[in-house]
Give the backbone structure.
Amino acid sequence: MKILIIFIFIISNIFSLDLEKPKIYKEHNINNWLMSEKLDGIRAYWNGKTLYTKNGNKIFTPNGFTDNFPPFELDGELWSKRDDFENIQSIVLDKTPSSKWSEITYNIFETPNTKGNFYVRLEKIKNWFNQNPNINVHIIKQIQCKNKKELNTFLEKIVLLKGEGVIIKNPTLEYINKRSKNSLKVKRHYDDEGIIQKINYVDHKMKSLSIKLKNGISFNLGNGFTDKQRLNPPKIGEQITFKYYDLTKNGKPKFASFLRVREKE
């Protein structure tokens, strides 16, 4: 029985190991790459039959949402609009689909493990949905980026619209199912997630949270909280998302600020 439970756990989380993940842009040569808006939603992987979160948990969609989806893999973002993450999260991660799914669309940016360069992979997606339409599906627009100046102009436009950032990708290469320098995320700031280990109080009011990152590094997060959150802080063991602007030489986030409690995906 124990072996069966372990096996099921491995299968349910295998998808998180097999998707291409972008690295952070740091003055790479991106001339003539393709750029697109980075949507702040719930990343969703379609295995040909079912949608899963990036951590391999099943997404419970309403009847009809995945009609005409292809028998091959897709990768995209379940999204509604900019600056709406908490609402998206509450809708998408609910195990009982609600009528609010009408706000959600599936915004596709890849077809994992398909042969051919990025142009070929995009064409495969477009051809399928041209012949098998679904009103819930959008294919994320890709724009050719001639140079760094065009990238910065596009990023500034997205930021002014309260968007999260930009993804820029080398379109000439095959799909790589790991973290890749040929796919980069570009932001004014970065974000990360960590687990609350301890709550630090001063005069019965939360001063900071002791956070442990995935790489094992711990730090105290004290900025970005409202007065209400300081009186009723997130709980030990919860996963939170924060933004930061750089890392110290010891790998700790600089100028970190709380964003939200993150539900398990």
